Amino acid sequence: MNREKIICIECESEYFKDSSEMTDLCPDCAHKLYDYPNCEHEFENGNCSKCGWNGKTSKYLT
To answer: Is 90 exceeded by the pLDDT of residue 58?
Structure first.
């Protein structure tokens, strides 16, 4: 399956567009900022195999 990747406007991480409930935010930032459900990440080769996130976080979020 070839899923479209986009860049999160908050943390600048790549993620699969269809993996987040918010437009322009990765699942992790959507969770931290707006309490949306987060992906249960399974990292493989540096990226989550479920949502595509690479683990990068915003300098404004801890």
So the answer is: no
